[in-house]
Amino acid sequence: MTAAKGYRHGSTVPQPPTMCAMPSFDVVSEVDRQEVRNAVDQTQREVSTRFDFKNTDSSVEQNELVLTLRSVSEDRLKAVRQVLEERLVKRGVSLKGVDYGDVEVASGDTVRQVATIQVGIGSDKSREINKLIKAKAPKGVSSQTQGESIRVSAKKRDHLQEVIGVLKAEDLGIPLQFENFRD
To answer: Three-state SS across the chain?
Structure first.
């Protein structure tokens, strides 16, 4: 910028104030991958040392956000699943985002179960959340889907806090976090 009349060389000319952006926040559904890795490692360690898992070939394997639980019988598989769930909760990972597949018979008289950890808000869930916000939120609150998150904006910060309360009270089947709170 060039120096304007009455300003020293190198200083900037003050700009007129822009319109204030409305307060907003993002609704997301994410999981800390490192905490999932830690929970799987702790589960594997406990399964390898516990007496009731001796000679059962029980294990938990992780490939990104897909976990494979293996054991010799269905009741041992349920026990591995319980240990995994305890570790996930202890590490702060919500069980709402864990989707378990059917128990399958694997080779060598073993059973396995695949668990997938859901990340992001799908289009169906985002439509459901948008409808919920339109129905129960105060007047003047708007929401729009942005990829796998939802941006909620309102004229007043109090209205945004009401929306957070509404979303926390409703059981949507996925874990929700609220980020990027802006005034």
So the answer is: CCCCCCCCCCCCCCCCCCCCCCCEEEEECCCCHHHHHHHHHHHHHHHHHCHHHCCCCCEEEEECCEEEEEECCHHHHHHHHHHHHHHHHHCCCCHHHEEECCCEEECCCEEEEEEEECCCCCHHHHHHHHHHHHHHCCCCCEEEEECCEEEEECCCHHHHHHHHHHHHHCCCCCCCEEEEEEC
